[in-house]
Specification:
Two copies of one chain form a homodimer. The first copy, chain A, is α+β, with helices and mostly antiparallel strands. Chain A has two domains: 3-77, Arc Repressor Mutant, subunit A (Orthogonal Bundle), CATH 1.10.10; 83-136, 2-Layer Sandwich (Dna Ligase, domain 1). Chain A contains five helices and six strands, in the order ααααββββββα. In chain A, the strands form two sheets. Chain A has a four-stranded mixed sheet with strand order 4-3-6-5. A two-stranded antiparallel sheet of chain A has the order 1-2. Chain A binds a DNA duplex through helix 4.
Chain lengths: 137, 137
Amino acid sequence: MTAREKLLECGISPSVQRLAVLDYLLNHRTHPTADEIYLALCDEIPTLSKTTVYNTLKLFVDNGVALMLTINERNVHFDGDVSLHAHFYCKRCGHLYDMPYSGKHPSKSRMQTMEGHTVEEVHQYYKGICRSCLQED
Amino acid sequence: MTAREKLLECGISPSVQRLAVLDYLLNHRTHPTADEIYLALCDEIPTLSKTTVYNTLKLFVDNGVALMLTINERNVHFDGDVSLHAHFYCKRCGHLYDMPYSGKHPSKSRMQTMEGHTVEEVHQYYKGICRSCLQED
DNA sequence: GTGCTTGCAAATCGTTTGCAATAGC
DNA sequence: GCTATTGCAAACGATTTGCAAGCAC
């Protein structure tokens, strides 16, 4: 499915800016911050503003097109892969790795109830020192 | 174990301010923010500064006395319960509930390796609408 | 009296807001 | 033309920093 089709499916009108942000998310599985996305797209769309990037990412998160990762307390990171998976955050270099999810998988129906609460999102992450940083020691 | 003993055990000198913050965390399982802790302790310790609360919480997190919860992208919350458990965050009221951890429990030895990374912390949380907010609908 | 701890004030910076300009049907 | 979208500039607010004063052994 193309980025354009994905947006149309969610009822989001595919403006140049929105397509560029979604394309970036789908082609760069680096869990970028809003700022990283903004800087990367500046060349391509010189008039792009950071506000639009923030607006667009919020729209994507609200519509289930992207995930908001709040692992790093300084910046929010975004993930275009909305499938159930975990992350590993390196305290030394700040890199975010994808990891398999190790918890109970929620039932097929997207909505699940736990202790009376309606669960809409499931998050799991690990923190530590990544293998790349460990090699440098 | 008293708060004082806990601090001594970790090699943290138990100042009035540090004891007050730890006491607050252990007696209020509400996952408070730095600001909430500051406001609550202002009466007790009129000279307390927010900087000291931030310094103290950082010290606690670095020494495994408290957990830093970055679920809410606006404020960091803190938890004096460092045992392995999950959280539920209500998108409507912002309340944080304790939940059982549903993933694989890490091995007894505190350090665990996953895909070559050294894991020091494991986090799991859910987001949705809590039972209290659901009743209001 | 030396080193750790505290606390004020200012700075930082990621993010949000207000609002006017623009684009697309 | 009307509505949705964009983007600038300013505001916001949680957290950090620099540094001087205070405390404790």
